[in-house]
Amino acid sequence: MVDLKTLDRTYVANTYARFPVEIVSGKGSILVDSNGKEYIDMGSGIAVNSFGIGDEQWKNAIIEQLGKVHHTSNLYYTEPCAVLAKMLCERTDMKKVFFSNSGAEANECGIKVARKYAAEKRGKDCYTIVTLNNSFHGRTLTTLAATGQEHYHELFQPLTPGFVHIEAETEALKKLNQPEKIAAFMIECVQGEGGVIPLQAEFVQALTAFAKQHDILLIVDEVQAGNGRTGKLYSYMHYGIQPDIVTTAKGLGGGLPLGATLLNEKVECVLGHGDHGSTFGGNPVCCAGAVNILSRMDEKFLAEVQEKSNTIINSLSGAEGVEAISGLGLMLGIQTKKPAAEVIAYCRENGVLCLSAKDKVRLLPPLNIPMEILEKAITVIKDGCKV
Ligand SMILES: *Cc1c(COP(=O)(O)O)cnc(C)c1O
Which residues contact 234 (CB under 8 A, 6 or more apart)? Predict the structure, then answer.
């Protein structure tokens, strides 16, 4: 019998440089590898497992729905889909939701809505979507075009036309000529893959004002920063703005694939029958899990996320080998003196699984990680940062 690593390397496409760990089980914030070694999970499957592994309530919600019906297609009504859409709208003041299966798809939908709205309302030459340098919006050809990082583009030309990238600076807005051709701005309030960088409040205000002045739509990509991750339900809520379109995925399903595109009153009816669709989108099992996840993210829960964030920041600020900490809530980036990969390897060897983002160590623990487990992880990370 060949070992798993050989099997994987032989038959799975070469797109991932995996860590040398095979995860076989877990519970809550603990993951277990094939040697029985335990790790504290500071990555949540990249901000996906909002309540960790095998959360009982989430699991029961899913199992209950599995026992009823697991898939119907969107030709029929199912309860979890409608209930989840209502919950999302009530908590965001948005009006309608389109469900898909991933962040890239949620963004594709947002882009399609923006293009149709702009073409109908402002003319066929109005289709440009302005995004930010250092952003990340997905891997499909259109969301790659939206992504403001050249190195992702090089090998896949030609990408979908109609995207422009600018610096996240108020000055850059002043240089935007022909605003009549801009259909939408698309931003992450906290750039995740770009290095866990929150946008400056002043810039977000200026961008929002510019958009309002010219009837440009504002799309906020909450794929990573959404669903409680930053200590508010959606990260735009830190900025006191109301987007026209909100896209999300990752943590929404609590571990099952689910994407959502939320539409406000301006764009809720832009898409009509047949304009867009998804075979799996709004799957009742995924939605039943998400209803459970979202219903537990109340103000008390979000305050605890913020409290845990403060614990991490207070413990690591000024620690040996820690240069700076960025981010919001439980979406944090640590700038280390040592290369991030070295810190991450140390942590892994010592039972803590961290992620990276650019040259930083990125922390995205389960939102319900118990304080005592978090404190253990911090101790290891602190040691790993020492030079
Ligand atoms: C992960 C991510 C995406 C892409 O999501 P997928 O589910 O991998 O398609 C898009 N935008 C942001 C901000 C992300 O972090």
Answer: 92, 220, 222, 225, 226, 227, 246, 248
> Model confidence over 43-55: pLDDT tens digits?
999 999 999 999 9
Residue ranges around ligand 1 (CB below 6 Å): 102-104, 107, 136-138, 188, 192-193, 221, 223-224, 249-250
State the distance from the centre of ligand 1 to the C-alpha of 222, rounded, in angstroms.
9
Ligand 1 centroid distance, CA of 117 (Å): 24
User: In this predicted structure, what is the pLDDT of residue 2?
Assistant: 76
The enclosing domain of 380 has a CATH number of 3.90.1150.10
Q: Is residue 183 exposed (0-12), middle (13-18) or buried (19+ Cβ within 10 Å)?
A: buried
Q: What pLDDT is recorded for position 1?
A: 63
Shared-domain flag, residues 94 and 125: yes
The low-confidence residues of the chain, meaning pLDDT below 50, are none
Based on the domain organization, do 210 and 222 belong to the same domain? yes
